[in-house]
Hints:
Radius of gyration: 49 Å
Order of helices and strands: HHHHHEEEEEHEEEEHEEEH
CATH class of the domain at 174-300: Mainly Beta
Number of strands: 12
Number of helices: 8
Largest sheet: 7 strands, mixed
Strand order of the largest sheet: 3-4-9-5-8-7-6
Amino acid sequence: EEEATTVARFMSGLNLEIRDQVELLPYRDLNDLVQLCVRVEQQILRKSSSKRESSHSRSLKKDYMEEEKSFEKKIISEPSKELAKNKDKNKDKDIITPLSSTKTTDIKCFKCLGRGHVASQCPTKKVVILRGHDTYSSQEETTTTYSSERELLMLRRILHNQPSGTLSQRENIFHTRCNVLNNVCSLIVDSGSWCNCCSTRLVNKLSLITMSHPQPYHLQWLNKDGDIVINQVKVNFSIGKYEDQALCDIVPMEACHILLGRPWQFKKKTIHNGFTNEITFTRKEKKFVIYPLSPQQVVED
């Protein structure tokens, strides 16, 4: 038997209400026609059930209103002794009202699988973005924070130092005096400097012999004026009984004549006392302790 004949026989055997709706819908073969008939039948059943429920709820509401009116009349006419009995009856009647509300608990959301609401009113909304093989979910979002990319502010006392009557070394870096070719010079030990430095003024005044720097570099100051360091000098200096020689880069600086940085501290294996600001190291099996200048002496220099 041809499929067209089978479809015609199948349509003639359908319910009139189902056939009227199926004839308005497109289908390709007998299988599509069967699926359409099943869906149309389910729609008709849902509509009929909703009509029955609505008519039932209206009848319940009507009966409840009539009973409420009759109850109010009894309260007015009957004596107060029967009031307690009527309240018990009223409680029994109130049990009927949650019927409509219990219906909502049967509703199940297909998104969150919760009850009491439909998917369009789901309070738990989830956004999913698919990109290649990666999945991004808003419920699993993590916040990543990064360091600020703004200007770094620095505060440093420059060209001026307020005199202090205290001997505390709390706010002082290590200042001392040394001898270079029988001349008294100021000296600073600072672990924040990655190189040993000698001032241009000291080199010119004492006519020290300089040499070319093997790796010239650009020197950047706080005022953004730059100089290129191209020369070095070997400085022989002494602090009391301690005598030493340091290879220094020649830079234009005003803070001191000689600045001993990390290279000198690393070579001497120095130990710095943060409270007394003293520097201790050992040379040729002899222990040396260098004491700093007082704040007043630093101001005088």
